[in-house]
DNA sequence: AATAACTGCTGGACTAGTCCAAAAACCAAC
DNA sequence: GTTGGTTTTTGGACTAGTCCAGCAGTTATT
């Protein structure tokens, strides 16, 4: 889309300034597109364009038909630390919440089968969850578990940390993981859950987990709102 | 921007299909926005919106006033492997090129000083380079070196690997590094170099390098075209 | 043969609207 | 007090154009 250059340079600079100057605080609402277009005497399309650009930058985010809001600071995600979601968020003085969206049991589709190194028709469980930080839905997670490794797991509370559940109920420790971080667009079902537009940018993380015997136990697809996270690695 | 929903769903699906079906090949040009708008009987704005969305997905990219093109496969970037850029690209059967954009010598601004753990006014060299994969500019790099650690470095060929230069000329080995990966928008000078629009999404990588004595020797800012790369970690 | 000027094509930026659907606020009826 | 419509507000999607600037290829000039 027309990305802000001349007319919208103004409004971008003003908003950026207001945000960095703490006049607009995290989670606070920004005036509506129509208001801004009147304030700056430009079309709503140009306003949208400027807001889009600030959104890419990670300064603001939109909620469908609710308005635009200032983004809170990014969470630091260290893939090398064996720390589960709630712990990580708590360590950064933020509050976390997990909501179970649904569970499906099915035969592993080919992409998943390849990732999990399954050679033939194998049943898997797919657990879909939505994670919140400070009350805002920022992460959609899809876990694919090899069913026979986790008998009876569906009767457990799946809103808790799966890593902990693996350890306590099955004696599995996540020994190592393979990660892939891919900036891409949100697929339909993810966009819907995160309340963003289909095709909007997200950070996709594909993760394959190995237990202490070096067996693959599950894989995970995470979709983060890009303004909510940064990857941090110290080695 | 209006992200593709109804009218533009069509055009998105068609292009996606043509690309995955290899009817449109990497680096190949897509029909112009005006042509597409006639072909699908929709406005150019709607076409733009659909193309924008495919761009976010990483399937296509634009070149200013030249047209839209199909993205080649992403490069896998493993931050834990001590492998320099040209080596990494070669290992993936692609061709790399580095172009020196310029060198500045200055006092470290506060952000850099903090990163490099400098306590007082310290001169640094800033080396700006542009990296190409298969002839396409995909990576803008800014290296900030503490000047007194690298006497006379400016007389060297700076288009080669700095890691290698550090080792051969100064006996420095990059022992470990801290990384931060941040999906954000391209600043003005980066956008210009990469030939993308200001404010377009990029993957920003901040990296601080330590030598074998555990001293910070330099820091680096990388800005990747998001469709050109994925981060891959195995541990 | 080299260079400068022209020209068409491309995306960039923008104006001025319209219609729609979801969310939220409001208000009246129960 | 709660429920259930109605109205208002908000962003989503779209139409139908305009003008501009950079790129590339051609043509005319030197």
Helix content of chain A: 25-40%
Number of strands of chain A: 11
Choose one word for the global shape of chain A: elongated
The helix-strand sequence of chain A is HEHHEEEHEHEEHEHEEE
**Largest sheet: number of strands, sense, barrel closure of chain A:** 6 strands, antiparallel
Question: Which stretches of chain A are low in confidence, meaning pLDDT under 50 for 5 or more residues running?
Answer: none
- Architecture per CATH nomenclature, i.e. the level-2 architecture of the largest domain in chain A: 3-Layer(aba) Sandwich
Mean pLDDT of chain A: 90
Radius of gyration over C-alpha positions of chain A, nearest whole angstrom: 20 Å
Q: What structural class do the secondary elements of chain A suggest?
A: alpha+beta
In terms of quaternary structure, the protein is homodimer
> What's the number of helices of chain A?
7
Strand content of chain A: 35-45%
Q: Which CATH class of the largest domain in chain A is shown?
A: Alpha Beta
Q: What is the fold-level CATH name, i.e. the topology of the largest domain in chain A?
A: Chorismate lyase
Q: Roughly how many Å apart are the termini of chain A?
A: 39 Å
Largest interface: A-B, 40 and 40 residues
* Spatial strand order of the main sheet of chain A: 5-6-7-10-9-8
Describe the structure in brief.
Chain A has 235 residues and is an alpha+beta fold. Chain A has helices at residues 7-20, 33-39, 44-57, 85-91, 110-115, 162-170, 188-194; strands spanning 29-30, 60-63, 67-70, 75-77, 96-107, 123-133, 136-146, 176-185, 201-210, 216-225, 229-234.
């Amino acid at each position: 889309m027309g990305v802000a250059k001349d007319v919208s340079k103004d409004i971008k600079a003003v908003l950026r300034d207001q945000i960095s100057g703490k006049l607009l605080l995290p989670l606070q609402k920004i005036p509506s597109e129509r208001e801004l277009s009147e304030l700056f005497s430009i079309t709503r399309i140009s306003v949208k364009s400027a807001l889009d650009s600030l959104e890419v930058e990670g300064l603001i985010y939109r909620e469908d038909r609710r308005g635009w809001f200032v983004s809170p600071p990014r969470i630091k995600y260290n893939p090398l630390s064996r720390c589960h979601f709630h712990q990580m968020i708590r360590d950064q003085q933020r509050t976390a919440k997990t909501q179970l969206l649904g569970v499906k049991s099915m035969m592993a589709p080919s992409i998943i089968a390849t990732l999990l190194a399954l050679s033939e028709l194998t049943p898997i469980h797919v657990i879909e969850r939505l994670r919140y930080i400070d009350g805002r839905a920022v992460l959609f997670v899809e876990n694919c578990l090899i069913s026979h490794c986790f008998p009876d797991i569906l009767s457990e509370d799946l809103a808790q940390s799966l890593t902990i559940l693996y350890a306590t109920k099955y004696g599995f420790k996540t020994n190592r993981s393979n990660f892939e971080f891919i900036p891409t667009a949100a697929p339909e079902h993810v966009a819907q859950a995160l309340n963003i537009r289909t095709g909007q940018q997200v950070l996709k993380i594909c993760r394959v987990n190995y237990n202490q015997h070096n067996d693959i136990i599950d894989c995970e697809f995470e979709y983060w709102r890009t303004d909510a996270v940064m990857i941090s690695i110290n080695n």
